[in-house]
Design brief:
The chain is of the alpha/beta class and 184 residues long. Helices cover 52% and strands 23% of the residues. The strands form two sheets. Strands 1, 2, 3 and 4 form a four-stranded mixed beta sheet that branches. It has a three-stranded mixed beta sheet with strand order 5-6-7.
Length: 184
Amino acid sequence: MSLIKKTLSSMAIAMLVSSAAIAEENSNQKNSAMNDMWLDGKAETVLLLNKNLNSFTIDTKVNNGIVTLSGEVDSEIDKRLAGELVSGIKGVKSVKNELTVTNKKSISDTISSEYTDAKIATVVKTRLLLDQEIPGTKIDVSAQGGTITLKGSVKSSAQKDLAQAIAENTEDVKKVVNNLTVVK
């Protein structure tokens, strides 16, 4: 074979190999873009289906399997929740959580408040259950922000007033909403 034919053959083979490599790279880029679009849709759906988040204030962008969250949420807990939900999606490599918290209350403040509410609701409920003059099993007790709400039924207005007084005299209770009904 002549030198020219060998050179042309080598060039043709090199062109075929490089064309195949370019075609494979283009195919990989298309697959990556399709995967990113799929992940973006999946992330949007996961956030939309969560009842604790307002998904309309959260934006998602995906690049090579890395999801970036931006927008606003109400609390640090919501920010962490969004990040955890998205990071749990199969195929997500990592999450850049750039969400802005509009309510600057810290997680520890929120947990402390919830703990205090749970504690005072439990103490009030226990005191009502232990009191022999009140049908404590028929009274529901809930707490939010130091406010106790009493719901259920009692047999007299005296029982209703006693239940309220017990709740008001419990440590950390700021206010009592008495929604008890008297059933004779």
